[in-house]
Design brief:
Blueprint lengths: L3 E8 L3 H12 L4 E4 L14 E3 H5 L15 E10 L4 E7 L13 E3 L2 H14 L3 E3 L4 E7 L2 E7 L5 E9 L6 H5 L12 E10 L2 H8 L5 E9 L7 E7 L3 E9 H7 L3 H10 L4 H4 L3 E11 L10 E2 L2 E3 L15 H21 L4 H4 L1 H8 L1 H8 L3 H7 L3 H17 L6 H15 L2 H15 L1
Parallel strand pairs: 1-2, 1-10, 2-7, 4-12, 10-17
Antiparallel strand pairs: 3-6, 4-5, 8-9, 9-10, 11-14, 11-15, 12-13, 13-14, 16-17
Helix pairs in contact: 1-3, 1-9, 9-11, 14-15
The protein binds flavin-adenine dinucleotide.
Flavin-adenine dinucleotide (FAD) binds next to helix 1, strand 11, strand 14, strand 15 and helix 9.
């Protein structure tokens, strides 16, 4: 049997894998990019906000090259919701939606289109894309990772380095001895999502935007029914992505079926009018790694690197994952290029990857929020309680019923402290501050 040997094998053609493959192929390395989907993105799920700066670091000026951008985000809204009301904060800046060089800051995508286009850039750079092929194991030689075993007949692929970008719940991370136990339920969220088709002009009228402009809404509070997580609505060109993500450990405890959560969100009185008359085009569910910095595997070994969701690189508080994945994939690629130059693919040289990540926002942000996953697991009540209290206060102050405002203030204070003693409020705020400071 003829043995195929590449400079690098990349497993998974999501944002991390395509970024790694493009970086290495562009530097002249022989790269094979293995993807289990029928095509890149075929089964990939994301709420849908991508970040331009990190995409441009892989494909410069991607926005001028037919990239499948749905809408550029000009407004981000956060709702703290009860069952029938919400206090909302938002930031809108059509001009600030672009970096000075014209690169969109954040934009919505449908992954089936985006991933296909992004992986095509890796192919154009010279990588060999092998879709419809699942990597089942890593191959070892002389105590180092030396390739992968695919599900195909005679499908072993050998390489100096294997870059694991196979997403959340990666079994290959364990096979490569970068972690010695599976990911635990409190380190995962489950996201369920629908794409609802609506004419562009209806979306623009309902969300108050112009053609090409988009809005994101994140909804905390009652929509997660006492579990840690949030609901979201993101506008695409002619559809709206609506979904909700909550910790798997909380789903196991409450036994609330995820589709019920999504149905509840769609029927929320503030959400229903935004989706009215729309047609469900797609329903999907996917896990999100939420364990943060403390739950990350080892990032490199002899002949192996791991990037993106497979390495737990998600900043849940800021709804960022795709950007961490693209940056980590690119840095993994750059590390392999350097290893090739040195002719050394041992952990000693590949440790450069961890150093590069340490210098980037990826590990700086994940480390900053390292205590947040534990708080989210332990205190699922935090957002619900806070949302209730601020809605109560807003409702009272905005109801014009002849009661003097000072009396209203006293009434709010009495009601708030009846529901949540002052020391409890102070302790909660302190805990949140500690976790995000
Ligand atoms: P993935 O995108 O998961 O790609 C992994 C790839 O590997 C897939 O193509 C898969 O088919 C392939 N693969 C897996 N196993 C194998 C195998 N054994 N052999 C071959 N191929 C394999 N992030 C954001 O930035 N913004 C958002 O709005 C956002 N919203 C989200 C909403 C939901 C509901 C979910 C689930 C996630 C969301 N995320 C968001 C997170 C984001 O999707 C991920 O962080 C990002 O996709 C990670 O990229 P990746 O390349 O590491 O992994």
């Amino acid at each position: 049997m003829e043995v195929e040997k590449f400079d690098a094998v990349v497993v998974g053609a999501g944002p991390a894998g395509a970024a790694a493959a493009t970086t290495m192929a562009r530097a002249g390395l022989s790269v094979v990019l293995v993807e289990r989907g029928e095509y890149p993105g075929a089964k990939n799920v994301m709420g849908g906000v991508m970040y331009g700066r990190m995409a441009a670091e892989v494909v410069p000026e991607f926005w001028t090259q037919g990239a499948p951008i749905e809408r550029v985000v000009v407004e981000e809204r956060i709702w703290l919701a009860t069952d029938d009301s919400a206090v909302s904060v938002s930031h809108r800046s059509p001009e600030g939606a672009y970096h000075p060089d014209g690169c969109p800051n954040a934009f919505t995508v449908l992954r089936a289109k985006w991933d296909r286009w992004f992986a095509q850039k890796a192919e154009e750079a010279g990588a060999l894309l092998v879709p419809g092929t699942t990597v089942e194991d890593v191959l070892w030689q002389d105590g180092r990772v030396a390739g992968v075993r695919t599900g195909r007949e005679e499908g072993d692929l050998y390489a100096d380095v294997v870059v694991l970008c196979d997403g959340v719940n990666s079994a290959l991370v364990e096979r490569a001895r970068l972690r010695d136990h599976p990911v635990e339920p409190h380190q995962l969220a489950l996201g369920v999502k629908e794409v609802i088709g609506l004419p562009p002009e209806v979306i623009e009228a309902r969300f108050n935007v112009e053609r090409g402009q988009g809005v994101t809404i994140e909804i905390y509070g009652a929509v997660t029914r006492g579990m840690s997580g949030y609901g979201f609505l993101y506008t695409n060109h002619d559809s709206v992505s609506v979904g909700v993500g909550v910790l798997v450990s909380h789903l196991m405890r409450t036994r609330i079926p995820p589709y019920e959560l999504l149905e509840g969100l769609k029927q929320h009185p503030l959400v229903r009018p935004l989706l009215a008359g729309g047609e469900t085009l797609e329903y999907s569910a996917h896990a999100i790694p939420e364990g943060g910095w403390r739950a990350m595997p080892k990032l490199y070994g002899d002949g192996v690197l791991v990037a993106g969701d497979a390495a737990m690189m998600v900043n849940g508080l800021h709804r960022e994952g795709s950007n961490l994945a693209m940056t980590a994939g690119r840095l993994a690629g750059e590390t392999v290029v350097e290893a090739k130059r040195r002719g050394d693919f041992t952990a000693r040289t590949l440790s450069l990857y961890a150093a590069k990540l340490e210098e980037s926002f990826v590990l700086k942000d994940l480390r900053k929020y390292r205590d947040l996953p534990e708080l989210a697991e332990r205190r699922p009540d935090l957002f619900g309680t806070f949302a209730e209290l601020v809605n109560l206060a807003a409702h009272e102050m905005l109801t014009v019923d002849g009661l003097p405002k000072r009396d209203k203030q006293r009434k709010i204070w009495r009601e708030v402290t009846r529901r949540k003693p002052l020391w409890g409020l102070a302790r909660d705020l302190y805990e949140v501050w500690r976790a995000i400071r």
